[in-house]
Amino acid sequence: MNLFDYTRPVSVAEAIAAAQAPGAAYLGAGTNLLDLMKGGVVTPARLVDVTRLPGLDRIEFLDDGGVRIGALVRNSDLAHDPRFAKTYPAVAEALLAGASAQLRNAATAAGNLMQRTRCPYFADATSPCNKRAPGSGCAAIGGATRLHAVLGWSEHCIATNPSDFCVPLAAFDAVVEIEGAGGRRAVALVDFHRLPGDAPERETDLAPGELIVAVRLPPEAAGFSAHARYLKVRDRTSYAFAVVSAAAGLRLDGDRIGEARLALGGLALKPWRAREAEHLLAGQAPDPDVFRKAADAALAGAKPSGEANVFKIELARRILVRALTLAAAGTPERLPALPASPFAAPFAVPSSSPAGAAHG
Questions:
Q1: N or C end: fewer C-beta atoms under 10 angstroms in the chain?
Q2: Rounded mean pLDDT, 71-83
Q3: C-beta neighbour count of 136 within 10 angstroms
Q4: Residue 20 in contact with residue 181, Cβ under 8 Å?
Q5: What gap in Å lies between CA 117 and CA 198, rounded to an integer?
Q6: Beta strands 67-70 and 244-253: pairing type?
């Protein structure tokens, strides 16, 4: 690794001041950042260790019925909090589907939002990558694209966002609390991550030196607790990132869908909120034909970024139908620690050929 300065501030204000230095990056658990540093993919000049900042490791159930998740709350602590899991089951299910138990015990809420793409060309410091070196090109285009984007990509970048946690957060209108030199502000999770456009090196809405301090779920999100699921298809049952994932929440009014919330993962450089599909579901009976129409609407704008990922569009349709079907059936009393193998589902994964900017 390159030489770097290290500092451990004792307050949020001190951390933000330390992160104003050029090349500074925040260090949480380091489950992603340190790996990238070891590979020479990122080379921060200063690490600002935020793991001892007071007050950022709390889960707070708010008087208005929402919840505030501190930036340093561990993924496993959040997923296994009984009240949280009962109120936001799809979020807990997504957390339990991510990584391994060891990593979930270390990784933090803010670090999950800030994890970098797992595009192999990004992780290879010798490959051209507009994220690492703007203007150098995108080696993924024309390369091995099986796991790359089918929504929101550009000629400058076809990478995807790897987060499980962020998919239901996007579906249920989560808000990211950010603090910087100019004070505190809030950004909707759906606006926090950026699509690549012509500037893929700009991955989030964070300005240099800004720090995530919390994530909030609004009280309305709790209204979907009886019918909310997260489903993930991956190449192996555990320790793998999503090929495609989906979060679905339904609020049923008798035999009709009063309101729906949908988001997809593994398809774009940000979690993909399917608002048109949500509108289509409202007022409809929860049946397979309606779910298929919603899935068609959600994927209407999809196009492959390479011959190898054509299959992801159909797979996404199927997993969204499956997630809606499971949500309509009702949230189980106990969430599975790991989802069932994708090959047990009514579809299989087709084979094909081959500062502020770094929480971890």
A1: N
A2: 97
A3: 12
A4: yes
A5: 17
A6: unpaired
| Bridge partner residues of 215 (DSSP) | 69, 176
Question: In the chain, where does DSSP find H-type helix?
Answer: 12-18, 33-38, 75-79, 82-87, 89-96, 101-106, 109-114, 166-171, 189-192, 275-281, 288-298, 311-329
Supply 238's token pair.
Answer: 């555990």
Residue whose entry in the numeric block shows the structure tokens 């081959």: 354
Q: Which pLDDT belongs to residue 160?
A: 98
The rounded distance, in Å, linking the Cα atoms of 359 and 114 is: 5
Q: What three-state secondary structure class fits 298?
A: helix
pLDDT above 70 coverage of the chain, percent:
93
- DSSP 8-state class, residue 181: T
Cα gap 174→261, rounded to integer Å = 12
Strand boundaries in 109-238, DSSP class E? 175-180, 183-188, 211-217, 228-233
Neighbour count for residue 180 (Cβ, 10 Å): 19
Buried b (16+ CB within 10 A) or exposed e, 223-245: bbbebbbbbbbbeeeeeebbbbb
What residues have CB less than 8 Å from 141, skipping those under 6 apart?
155, 158, 305, 306
Alpha-carbon dihedral of residues 199, 201, 205, 208, nearest 10 degrees? Answer: -120
Instruction: Report the Cα 154 to chain-centroid distance in Å.
Output: 20
Instruction: List 180's β-bridge partners, or say none.
Output: 183
Give the closest residue to 147 by CA, choosing from 278, 23, 21, 315: 315
Please name which of 242, 259, 239 lies closest in space to residue 250, comparing C-alpha atoms: 259
DSSP single-letter state for residue 283: T
Strand bridging mode 24-27 / 46-49:
parallel
Segment 288-339, tens digit of pLDDT: 999 999 999 999 999 999 999 999 999 999 999 999 999 999 999 876 554 4
